[in-house]
Amino acid sequence: MKIVLLEDVKKVGKKGDIVEVSDGYGRNYLIARKLGKEATNAAINDVKLKKATEARKKEDELNEAKELGLKIKASSITLAIKAGEGGKTFGSVSTKEIAKAVSDQLGIEVDKKKMVLDEPIKSLGTHIIKIKLHPKVTTELSVKVEGE
User: Fold this and answer.
1) Cβ pair 37, 4 in contact under 8 A
2) Among candidate residues 95, 57, 77, 56, the one with its CA nearest the CA of residue 146
3) What's the rounded Cα separation, in Å, for the pair 102 and 105?
4) For the chain, how many helices (H) and strands (E)?
């Protein structure tokens, strides 16, 4: 019996898979517990349409991330931090402050959790930070830190 899985089933398959199972297992377990439904032509076509829609959506997200990455890489932001004599700073610049500056200066919303700082920025000057916009897209942002 062919079944279209509606949920992930251990040792059988993942959601959306079309699997061949015994008649009893299919009727008495998978269909009864709404883990799957019989693989009719309509059900198979529905699965194919959903997979195609998901693929298109993922492709669109990737393209948007690439465009945003190019826009971010081409720009830079400026932050002001209190500094003493000789350029020694009081405190450091965090990803939260950088995310707020990107939002204010560039008009782009970037999650602070997606920013990768090896160590907090504690010196004046220009620093390059990495931003992971998508699992396949990483970009760099130039942050200029000035003393107040």
Assistant:
1) yes
2) 77
3) 5
4) 3, 9
pLDDT digits 0-9 by tens, 89-134? 888 888 999 999 999 999 999 999 999 998 888 888 899 999 999 9
30 and 36 in contact (C-beta within 8 Å)?
yes
Domains in the chain with CATH codes:
2-59 (3.40.5.10), 66-147 (3.10.430.100)
Tokens encoding 51: 């997979």
CB-based contacts of 9, cutoff 8 Å, min separation 6: 30, 35, 36
108-145 b/e with 16+ CB inside 10 Å = b? eebeeeebebeeebeebeebebebbbbeebebebebeb
Strands 137-147 and 76-81: parallel
Please state the length of the chain: 148
Q: What are phi and psi of 133, to 5 degrees?
A: -85, -30
Q: Is the pTM of this model over 0.85?
A: no
